[in-house]
Amino acid sequence: MPSLLIKSVWKEGDVVDVLIQQNRFYKIASNIAPEDIPLDTKIIDGAGKAIVAPFYNGHTHAAMTLLRGYADDMSLFKWLSEYIWPLEGKFTAAHIYCGSRLAILEMIKSGTVFFADMYWNREETIRAAVEMGVRATIGVTFAENLMTPESIEENFNFLKKECHHHERIQLAVMPHSIYTVGDALWIRCAEVARALGLVLHTHISETNEEVENCKRDKGKTPVEYLESLGVLGPNVVLAHAIHLTAEDVEIIKERKVTLIHNPGSNMKLGSGIMDISSLMKAKIPIALGTDGASSNNNLDMREEMKLASLLAKVKGDPKLLTAEEVFHMATINGAQAYGIDAGLIEEGKLADALLLDLNNERLIPNYHLISNWVYAADSRCIDMVICDGQIIMENGYVRDQEAILADVQKIISQVK
Ligand SMILES: [Zn+2]
Question: What is the pLDDT at residue 18?
């Protein structure tokens, strides 16, 4: 793998050279001497560019790009059961591959190099992620209402056989929710995740209805219910987590669980507002996710940062969730949630980065780059995307982008 040298790039107020060797940041210094640069190095002119960490999307359903705009403006349960699940039932493996490629294209173009995915036909999403050069945690998804006992066994066999599939791809155990998975399967999922050293990821306390039903049926909140089954621990990542009690927050803190905030989807589905203030006071790690494109309706993590920050402030406290804090959620916190040694532009870290065009009108004047990036910018400010030491977008172009779009147009006409 040839080395990369980004010359004279703006980094947190200084102009530096950034040398990437193999897949890590090898040296970051004000002027790297020619004798320290390997012969086969590709040199990138960083003048007028800023280097920042890229995004790590902590919760999505990539192939749901195929459902973008199909059903909007209704409640979560009605949306899932009357629209989304029936149409998804018609998808083949080829659809999932095309939808995943569309999602990854959109994510790369908006600065995301990693996504945690919960969906079906995971082999297709893995194939798309490997081919397009991004990182991913791919879920082996469990939902008893949509699966046979045989397919559940197949999932466990797949986890055991494939859990170290590819260096940029890891698997995770993903029971869909407390309302689609029963006690025994929850316990088994938790045991398998722990035994294989994998993340366990699920949706939790997304709506009032979910919480009320759980209290009626189990006599507990969803978090208390998972705690009673012995599911919660430091390998657990919970999406949404909107309707939490003070006791739930204590359990989450005690068990060192990470939460994923999905402000766009939560607002669009009318699910509620995560209590960022209390969770941050409790020092609970929170990362950001877009959720699927059918409830967002895009996969743009920069937009999600702005939504998260504005939503936190809307009740009257403008100090809540600063630009720097939400940028950390979208970058380093997301990487940490899924055990990836990245999310910072720092020697020794995995070499994932964005180059932003400092001559874009939305980044001028540059009093505070992260403020501009969170509150003012859009994806057009991204000049280059680097993942694992490889350039995966250059001058706004992603390899095969025309073919990816044409394939989706073709295949979607067959499912409607
Ligand atoms: Zn979701």
Answer: 98
